[in-house]
Amino acid sequence: MLEVRNLHATIGDKEILRGINLTIRDGETHAIMGPNGSGKSTLSAVLAGNPLYEVTEGEAIFNGKNLLDMKPEDRAHEGLFLSFQYPVEIPGVSMTNFMKAAINEKRKYQGLPELKTTEFIKLMREKQKVVELDNRLANRSVNEGFSGGEKKRNEIFQMAMLEPRLAILDETDSGLDVDAMRTVANGVNMLKTAETSCIVITHYDRLLEMIRPDVVHVLYQGRIVKTAGPELAKEIQERGYDWIKNS
């Protein structure tokens, strides 16, 4: 599904990614861990097409297409989804109108007709149940006045509506209590299929006990320095990162 080879990226004059190599196959869940400043969020931003970052070397192939040649909106239409660490508020734009516009733009890109209002409402109700999104929140402006947990839950709802091939969750567990984290994790697990994949970026193994990864990577100083199974997350929680840096 995704093949990243020797990816280098900078912001301003500072190089952040220094040769990322990463292979993700259909149906796999990968966790990326690492200390602050290691490049985890930069990697997600580069894959999503954030224009603040410049790719100076390497490639990223997504389902046979060069991801780095695509506009950010085309990457989304191709099936890439990014859940932000700090979701933004969009005052004056209702969740209903926001999601309807997003889905119909994706359908237009795919050469499909727009969803009828009745079809859209039915879909929205189905997906709300998956992430236990309160009807009140769905009828408000996007993220306006939402708590941290509500914003993260709302993003998983957006993921459910858009049905991406590859979802990148950038520190979705940040600031969540255990109950909110479990709701988000349940939503992610329920949406997983044999054709979809997920990258979970996190500092801690708590979320990874709920979203069980197939592979865990440690990213340090812009490179993936260790890759192993889910047991690696537990070892990092117990021992920190120093033993990896020094090994």
Give a topology summary.
Blueprint: E1 2-11, E2 14-24, E3 29-33, H1 40-48, E4 54-62, E5 65-66, H2 72-77, E6 80-83, E7 90-94, H3 95-109, H4 117-131, H5 135-138, E8 141-142, H6 148-162, E9 166-170, H7 178-191, E10 197-201, E11 215-220, E12 223-228, H8 231-239, H9 242-245
Parallel strand pairs: 3-10, 3-11, 6-9, 9-10
Antiparallel strand pairs: 1-2, 1-4, 4-5, 7-8, 11-12
Helix pairs in contact: 4-6, 6-7
Descriptive account of the structure:
The protein starts with a strand and ends with a helix. Helix 4 crosses helix 6 (148-162) and helix 6 (148-162) packs parallel to helix 7. The protein is an alpha/beta fold and 247 residues long. The strands form three sheets. Strands 6-9-10-3-11-12 form a six-stranded mixed sheet, with helices on both faces. Strands 2-1-4-5 form a four-stranded antiparallel sheet, with helices on one face. The protein has a two-stranded antiparallel sheet with strand order 7-8. 37% of the residues lie in helices and 28% in strands. Strand 4 and strand 5 (65-66) form a beta hairpin.
